[in-house]
Amino acid sequence: MRIGSSIALIVIGAIVAFALNIQLAGIDLRLIGYILMAAGVVLLIISLAIAFGGRRTTTTTRSGVDPASGEEITRQDRRDGTY
Fold first, then answer.
1. Contact present, 10 and 44 (Cβ < 8 Å)
2. Where are the transmembrane segments (predicted)?
3. Which helix H or strand E contains 61, and what residues bound it?
4. Where are the beta strands (DSSP E) in the chain?
């Protein structure tokens, strides 16, 4: 959802900056469009960094003794922290 919202901001900013031809007193719509596009690009970069940079791997090791044979048993579990 974050990536989609970022792209929506970029699109809305481009529409405001380039497609609207409205003159308002004291308001520069082209500047507002550029600000929206810049905010969308920054949010897109942050969203991609979170999405692809937050993966972690966890390894858990457990050791125990088998009561029947007396052998030591070691078990390792590896889990990827994908979201």
1. yes
2. 7-25, 31-52
3. strand 57-65
4. 57-65, 72-80
